[in-house]
Specification:
mainly alpha
Amino acid sequence: MACITISVEKSFKERLERFSWVNWSQIGREELLKRYIFDKYVKTGNLSKDEEKFCETVDWHPVDELPLKEEFVKKIKKIQKENYSKPMTPAEAKKWFEEL
């Protein structure tokens, strides 16, 4: 396995040392792998089985990093402006529950 050394400011290193139980090497590996997978996904739209397994393990998917589509944002804003629910009478609520 290759080794990478990263230089950080002394104050940042001191802050990291407060969390002695954290495996910073593992976090770095995961973040680098996420970046690689994200770049590959943006270019190809596909993931290998191993990459899918990694994403499942860390509960992350590259699509989570993509910006929201403008049409979706507009739709959400429209819904927020509208009154999309109405109060029910007890009779209406009973009927609604019976239909479930």
